[in-house]
Amino acid sequence: MLTPLKDLVQAAQAGHYAVGAFNFSNLEILKSITETAQRLSSPVIIQTSQSAIKYAGLGFIVAMARAAAEETDVPIALHLDHGTDLDLIKECIARGYSSVMIDGSHLPLEENIRITREVVALAHPSGVSVEAELGRLVGVEDEISVDEREASFTDPDEARRFVEATGVDALAVAIGTAHGQYKGEPKLDFDRLKQIAGAVETPLVLHGASGVPAESVSKAIKLGICKVNIDTDLRLAFHGAVKSFLESSDSYDPRKLLAPAMEAMSEVVATKINLFGSAGKAVR
Ligand code: G3H
Ligand code: 13P
Ligand code: ZN
C-alpha cells in the first residue's frame, strides 16, 4: 500500500527530520531508491515528473511503485512532481498516486490559489495529498540580477495567505535553490525560510537540493524543511557509473551495464537519507 505524503511530512515535522523525495523514470532508479530506504528503515517519497510519466507510461510507473511498496515494509509515497496538466493530475489520482503537486508558481498569486484549490478539491476526497509551490525557482542557467533573484523568492505573508486559502499538505518554497547542476555554491536565504516557517504550519519542501552543501541542507531542515527533492545527483551517479563501465568493459549485457549505476545511485540515496535524518523512522 502506498502512503499519503501528508503522513510522511507531518511525522517528519514532528520529529525534526526530512523525508527524501527522489525522482525516478525506470526500474533501476526505483529499485535503488526503495531498496536503500528499506535497508535504512527510512520512509521515502518516490516521484515522477510529467515527462517521466510520458517516458515510462503511467501504467508501468504505478505498477512498479506498487510492487516496490509490496516488496518493502517502509512507508512509500508515490508523488507527481511539478504537475501542471490538470487532466494528468486527475489521472494520477484515479490510478493510485498517493500525492500530487500542482505547480502554479509561474502564475499570479490569485491564479495560483485558484488552481491549487481546484486540485485540493480533486485530491483530498480520495485521500490523496497535495503539494503546491509559491515563489519561483530560477534556472541554473538564468543570468539574473540580485533584485530579480529576490523577487522570485517566496514571500512569508503571501505564504500564510496561500496555505490558509488552499489547505495544501506541503508547500514548496523558493529560497535560493535551483533545479539542475549549480555553477557555483548556492546561497540559501535562511532568514526568509525562518520567517516562512514562522508564518505557516504546513510542512515545507526544498526543491533543487542536488549539489546543495550538506550543512546548508541540515540547516534548512532545522528551520522547517520536511521534504527534500533530489533528481540531478541520481542522474549524475547513473551517468558516471555507466560511462566508466563502458570505458572499461566490452560487455553488452544491460544488466551488467546497469548494476554499477544502481550501486552508485544507492550510495547517493543512503548519503541523503542519513543527512536528512530519516533513517530508522519507518513506521507503517
Ligand atoms: O524538477 C524537475 C525534475 O528534476 C524533473 O525533470 O522533467 O526532466 O523529468 P524532468
Ligand atoms: P534537482 O534535480 O536539482 O535535485 O531538483 C530536483 C527537484 O526539485 C525535483 O522536483
Ligand atoms: Zn522541483
Could you give a quick summary of the protein structure above?
It contains twelve helices and eight strands. The chain is α/β, with parallel strands linked by helices and about 280 residues long. The protein has an eight-stranded parallel β-barrel, surrounded by ten helices.
Task: Give the arrangement of secondary structure elements.
Blueprint lengths: L4 H11 L3 E5 L3 H13 L4 E6 H7 L1 H14 L4 E8 L2 H10 L3 E4 L6 H15 L5 E6 L11 H7 L3 H11 L3 E4 L16 H10 L4 E3 L7 H9 L2 E6 L1 H17 L5 H23 L8
Parallel strand pairs: 1-2, 1-8, 2-3, 3-4, 4-5, 5-6, 6-7, 7-8
The structure holds glyceraldehyde-3-phosphate, 1,3-dihydroxyacetonephosphate and zinc ion.
What is the CATH third-level topology name?
Answer: TIM Barrel
The secondary structure category is alpha/beta
**Roughly what is the average pLDDT, rounded to an integer?**
96
Uncertain segments are none
Biggest beta sheet attributes:
8 strands, parallel, barrel
* CA(first)-CA(last) distance: 10 Å
Kindly give the count of domains: 1
DSSP helix count?
Answer: 12
CATH class: Alpha Beta
CATH superfamily: Aldolase class I
Beta-strand content bin: 5-15%
Strand order of the main beta sheet, please? 1-2-3-4-5-6-7-8
